[in-house]
Amino acid sequence: MQNSLPLHLCHVQKSCAIMNRLHTLLHSIALTALIYYRASILIQSIKNRDTPILPWLLVFASELILSFIWLLNQAYRWRPVSRVVFPERLPEDKELPAIDVFICTVDPEKEPTVDVMNTVISAMALDYPVDKLYVYLSDDGGSSVTLQAMREAWRFAKWWLPFCRTYGIKTRCPKAYFSEEEDDHGDFRSSEFITDKTMVKEKYEVFKRRLMRIRENTSMVISRDHSPVVEVINDKPIGTVREDHAEMPVLVYVSREKRPSHPYHFKAGALNVLLRVSGLISNSPCILVLDCDMYCNDATSARQAMCFHLDSKISPSLAFVQFPQKFYNINATDIYDGQLRSLFKIQWQGFDGLEGPPVSGTGFYMKRMALYGSFTPKDVDIMKLKLSYGISNEFIKSLGRNYKPNVFNGGDLSSQLLKEIELIASCAYENQTKWGEKVGFLYLSVLEDYFTGFNLHCKGWTSVYCDPVRPAFLGTGATNLNDLLVQGTRWVSGLVEVAISRFCPLIYGPFRMSFLESMCYAELAFYPFYCLPIWCLATIPQLCLVNGIPLYPEVSNSFFAIFTFVFLSSHLKHFQEVLLTGGSIQTYIIEQRIWMIKSVTCHFYGTLDAIMKKTGMREASFLPTNKAVDDEQALRYQKGKLDFQASTMFLAPMISLLIINITSLVVGVVRVVTGNSSHDMIIQLFLPFFVITVNYPIIEGMLLRKDKGRILPSVTLLSSVFAIIFLSLGSWVLIY
Ligand SMILES: O=c1ccn([C@@H]2O[C@H](COP(=O)(O)OP(=O)(O)O[C@H]3O[C@H](CO)[C@@H](O)[C@H](O)[C@H]3O)[C@@H](O)[C@H]2O)c(=O)[nH]1
Ligand SMILES: [Mn+2]
């Protein structure tokens, strides 16, 4: 009976889809009219030579780019779905596949050791058969701090895991559990529980103190020149640990070899080493990838994922189950849109209704086989396999579907196996192989997740998106402007790298996946190009306003209604989606603001970075996101104040643009009031007004704030100089 019940259900959001499609239809009719208007006026003015062509062309080009990206966006709206899972219907534990958890860390300064260890411990505490769970930590910093901390984490886990199991604790990340006000569920008043909790809490405090001591006494310098270190953390029981406390998943520390002469391909490189190392140690058919800050918040996520992986109908083509990225440090106002609402609440559901969402870096359960490229068990020519997978015989053996290494009989790894592991963790191992190109996580883009996912979908794999009410994983999101923009620049750079490669989703995708799915991928790859229209629309109409040149229809013109409609329709749609996903009018304004800020800064720099990498002018780099908390910045964040303690490189463009908009609005209003304007320029007046209103906090940061997070007068001055240069040079070009 039980077997006949589905393990999961997929619900198509019908009314939402109908509304979306209707909106798409109406909006595209309006856009067509707008394009018709622009084209016809342009032809006319080329004939008559009565208006300056350049600003018209720029604004028209901007509108075309915006319309194009908008069109791609509609693919997400076509068939949004949501899913529910029934883990209680899963087969018995002995039929569940084993899981290798991969956690990556790189920098003990930016990624506090105690938080990384909390992630490790929460993964060890997953609600899954303990003999089927293996946790690997990749330490790209090669820091002995991390290795020592893992030994401590292991010791603490010996207390923590039994405690969680005995009392069915839901929050299995100790830091989160102990900072919660109340117990997470159930009746936990028994004296036994209280004694145990006090005892475990005491152990946790000791654990933290030990980590602190390790950090004080050990160098935290990240080494780019070191041999591989692989260690199975397997401390013999100390003190009074009872025998039944010892049921622990295997925990492995991996620090791959690094040499300055070898590219190391950042996180993708680290994950590929983990794939190989784990292949020799546990070779589990399923892999969970986690960033070091993403702790497991729901211990049942593995079982939820298995509801899809064990469904014989979808499983053969299912590569991975993706959970959303959610963050525990984002507050209610979320002034930086750190939760990435649109991505994880709208776009990923849209993807899910097609062939599935992209790999999202962290929080996904992936089939190992999916990452092994075109390998099929029939492929038995060893030489050919070695060309793809490298020279390790042991690793080639592990490719066999049912190969189960038997390394744990004696406890530690044998010296022979350790040698082989060191070979596959060496930096030269991938030379002349297909690793990073066809096998494993791919290296073409710094956004390894996006590109790897895209390739999987190109090969016919599918994915599903699982977004349960209780977040499966929780990490740290950006809570200050600089971090947000640095991270955004890296993402954009990675996306544009794909957009301008031969893998451009619109060219490479449509023949390999459904057209709608490739549109979604293309939208992600192309959205950085928002920087072009946003730069144009933030300057050209304003410049023309100052010079009294109209670019938009007058109120009496019937096309005025078209422009108004396009503006209102896109904003109302955005607003509707914000409301639908639990946001407010404030969320809507914040998202508009952050979109503008990102478009003129990180979209621009990221695009530039990608082009420079492509032309060989720059090397790829990966600046990890800061996960450590700065108290002062945290306080400003809590107060909902934008933090302008950011690089001038980011501040100057947005402030310059704002000053241009303020100037043009003032001049424009003066022109109207003094009757100096021969046309009505309602739209051109509205544009800077809108920009200024949405970005009011920046003005506040320039003029009113006195705290450390304000905009420094020197930056304002510099930006004013840029604005003045632009306005005078621009006016001169226009008149000329
Ligand atoms: O050389 C490196 C650089 C980074 N990392 C790890 O990669 C993870 C992600 O790095 P982070 O600095 O947190 O970058 P984010 O921009 O916050 O990460 C997002 O974007 C990445 C792609 O740029 C994805 O890989 C991540 O999963 C996704 O959360 C972290 O655990 C790092 O420790 C490495 O292991 N080696
Ligand atoms: Mn991160």
UniProtKB/TrEMBL annotation:
Active-site residues, Swiss-Prot/TrEMBL: 140, 449
Subcellular location: Endomembrane system
Species, as recorded: Nyssa sinensis
Membrane topology: Multi-pass membrane protein
Gene Ontology cellular component terms for the protein in this record: endomembrane system; membrane
UniProt-listed Pfam families: Cellulose_synt
Residues passing through the membrane, by range: 21-41, 53-73, 649-669, 681-699, 711-735
Binding site for UDP-alpha-D-glucose: 110-111, 140
Coiled-coil ranges per UniProt: none
GO molecular function: cellulose synthase (UDP-forming) activity
Keywords attached to this entry: Cell wall biogenesis/degradation, Glycosyltransferase, Membrane, Transferase, Transmembrane, Transmembrane helix
Binding-site positions, Mn(2+): 267, 291
Domain of life: Eukaryota
Name of protein: Glycosyltransferase 2-like domain-containing protein
BP-aspect Gene Ontology terms: cell wall organization; cellulose biosynthetic process
